[in-house]
# Entry
Amino acid sequence: MRLPSNSTKRTKQSNSSSASASTIVAASAAAAAGAIAGTYFYKQRNNNNKMEGIQKQVEGLTKQVKGALHLARPAGSSKGSPPKEGERKYLIGGNWKCNGTVASLTEIIDTFNKAGPIPANVEVAICAPFIHIPLCLSKLRDDIAVGAQNCGANEKEGAYTGEICASQLKDIGCVWVCIGHSERREGFGMAGEDSELVAKKVKVALDAGLKVMFAIGEKKEERENGTTNDVCASQLAPAAKLLEEKDWENVAIAYEPVWAIGTGLTATPEMAQETHAYIRKWVSENVSEAVAKAVRIQYGGSMKGANAKDLLAQPDIDGGLIGGASLKADFFNVVNGVSLDE
# Structure
């Protein structure tokens, strides 16, 4: 993808200055918070009124620290026009899975930052491994939302060793979370997550203020024996029982045929459209017609730059949940595979 040659140096200088500034602000705020708290608790530990005052000061400085972490994010840019009234905005999500080092992901973030404008009728998000979420929040262009790949079923913080709760993801700055991915439903050396647990997580995440990419899909043998629609319905049903109609405003359904994930196999555009149309019909009959019309349904079976345009041209395919290609420059070929609204 060709970029203006005279912009590279200025961009690097700007990012470096922003990063340095954010580091200084964060360090100064943190030091000030520590100094204030230490002085107070030593001299005024029994004074409740002053305790409230110091807590407010520390909370304010904490907000400065969080804000500083985001100062370095470079601005994005857009092209084309936003979707017309009544049209669904495409959603292209990247799922980095359990991949990447600080060095390798910094490199791909730099590639995305230089990839040019994002169509105005497309929303883009990256679901990163937990440990790399702060990296994305500090370096990734600000028109790509940051999300996680899972969250706990626990509604609040507490004694849940090894878990990350939805409210913590929201607190750090995440916008999206992917729940119900087939790899988690199947398990990998551990018990998989059933549809009831997935539905509970979806509700917990929504109540915490996150948006959810809710993944469903059939295995190869289920496709071959003709039960694709039954499988999708069985995975949707527990969520339909738990969610209120307004909850669906923050849900995207990610249809991922398990047999096509990471295999190089892809459903034809016609096959994918057929299943997407069934999912929309099911939502209309079991949730509401309004939700069915508005909900975005992503396709997630080995979508990449080479096949994105044909898949995204289907009337009920509203985006993609991208695995391997989201770790490459090809991700932006998917982003740019949509039809622009001029």
